[in-house]
Amino acid sequence: MSEAVSTRAAPSCGTGLLPSLAPLLHGWLPRQRWFAGKGRPVTGFSLVSATEMLPVGTGTGLLHLLVRVHQPAAPGHSPDDCYQLLLGVRAVLPPRLAPALIGRVTEGPLAGRTVYEGLHDPHLAGLLLERFRTPGTLGALRFGGSGPALPGRLAPRPLDTEQSNTSLVYGDAYILKIFRRLFPGTNPDLELPLALAREGCGRVPAPVAWFEARTPRPLTLGVLQPFLGGAEDGWRLALRHLAEGRDFAPEARALGRATAEVHTALAAALPTPALHRAQTERLAAAMVRRLESAAQAVPDLAPYVPGLRTAFDAVAALGHRGRDWAAQRVHGDLHLGQTLRADDGFWSLIDFEGEPARPLHERRSPQLPVRDIAGMLRSFDYAARSHRPWNDAWAARCRTAYCEGYAEAAGTDPRGEPELLRAHETDKAVYEVLYEARHRPDWLPVPMAAIHRLAAAED
Questions:
Q1: In angstroms, how far is the first alpha carbon of the chain from the final one?
Q2: Strand, coil or helix: what is 90?
């Protein structure tokens, strides 16, 4: 990514802009849910681009910034992540926008003005939708689309469920996802839904507009899609079934069919390279490395390492004997919370960004479809174990029904290759152990129960 500053000619985007904002960003950025560098000091900032989307003047302004945040390097973390900021600028912030306050600028081109999170301002959020109605370029930004003309005057409202991004809903008709932490290249959450739309797959809302930064390699900044109003996400639906003592197996079977339809369409739309012996052995070796690293960080995992490693060794052995598989693009982070069920029972899959913590080139690489399947099977387990008392039988019925539904639509049953399924479930559970130990220790028993089961599966 180029470090050159690209601006729309305006005094507020001059060379003194970032130094004047830096004291405020030092305190504000680490508090945001989407900031990936928590726990490491911020040592500085550099400006990648600055665009004045609404001239500051003497009224309300909107600045679009791409800022590289410099931090000490750490395992699994980049020392200089790039973030997208949309800053509102006012002389005085009205009380209704007080929660969005970033601070008052004391020097530079914005001296004496107040800056705040612009996406919390309905006026500025509405301006962003207007830009999609008139595609083209603005400073460092390029707006495009593939759908019908967008209506105007759709009231925006932010969603409070996002963790790594920010989403706005416009009039219950469209949802705009703003990517906060940026990587060079096309984001899978734009690339894959567009590919599925070309294949006529109706399981994923097709993008109608998007915008990106004009750098040497494009940066996907945001995607606008139809908002599936009235649909319920799979996680909440599953928990409601559990609380009411209702069977979820029919829903799980339908969800399995939906997953298979998406996989089939992705395989038709994009390349499907074969995983031969060398690639399979590398896949298994990477799983072993993640296991050993997690066991060092979480001592409770260490006694299970020998049993868990047999899952990865079994896959490597299959590759060594000449077994190969077709890889393809997949969802990459599939779980119940990434699904929506309409009132008529139709399931949709959403959020194709993949695991945000992984580098973009990894998220865009072909994978085995069983990775998505394993993620969903683990999600059923999480749902069952979030209920008191734990309901293992409920999870087992859902797992069976999901695989049956997948087999009905795909023609192949994921349980037909138990080595692959066990290895990917194990790899996912190891990831969960590390995540819960770091972020939600009270949840650690959930993946540890799966670890106990999977380590004993060699018997």
A1: 50
A2: strand
Tokens of 103: 């601070």
Q: Output the CA torsion sign for 4, 8, 9, 14.
A: negative
Cα angle at 37 between 36 and 42, to 5 degrees? Answer: 145
CB-CB contact of 328 with 266 (8 Å): yes
Q: Which pLDDT belongs to residue 459? A: 45
Count of Cβ atoms closer than 10 Å to residue 161 Cβ? 8
Q: Angle between the 370-385 and 249-269 helix axes, to the nearest 10 degrees?
A: 160
- Going from N- to C-terminal start, the domains of the chain cover 6-226, 232-456
Using one digit for the tens of pLDDT, what is the confidence trace for 42-96? 999 999 999 999 998 778 999 999 999 999 987 666 778 999 999 999 999 999 9
Strand order of the β-sheet with 339-341 is 232-233, 339-341, 347-349
Per-residue pLDDT at 333: 94
3-state class of 240 per DSSP?
A: helix
Do residues 265 and 199 lie in contact, with contact meaning Cβ atoms separated by under 8 Å?
A: yes
Q: Where are the beta strands (DSSP E) in 18-155?
A: 44-54, 61-70, 80-90, 101-104, 114-117, 136-138, 141-145
User: By 3-state DSSP, what share of the chain in percent is helix, strand and coil, each rounded to 5?
Assistant: 45, 20, 35
- Check whether 141 has a pLDDT greater than 50: yes
Architecture of domain 232-456: Alpha-Beta Complex (3.90)
Distance CA 334, CA 351 (A): 9
**Quick check: 9 pLDDT over 50?**
no
**C-alpha distances in angstroms, 155 versus 100, 232, 342?**
18, 22, 23
Q: What is the largest CA-CA distance in the chain?
A: 73
What is the per-residue pLDDT across 282-294, written as a single tens digit (0 to 9) for each?
999 999 999 999 9
Tokens standing for residue 78 = 């980049």
Nearby residues of 418 by Cβ (< 8 Å), 6 or more positions away: none
Nearest by Cα to 359 from 3, 77, 23 = 77
Sign of CA dihedral 324, 330, 332, 337: negative
Is the previous residue joined to 389 through a cis bond, with omega within 30 degrees of 0?
A: yes
- Selection from 185, 178, 223, 160 nearest residue 83 by Cα: 178
Of 247, 223, 228, 229, the closest CA to residue 237 belongs to 247
Residues whose CB falls within 8 Å of the CB of residue 243, separated by 6 or more in sequence, listed in order: 387
Comparing C-alpha atoms, which of 445, 438, 442 is closest to residue 76?
Answer: 438
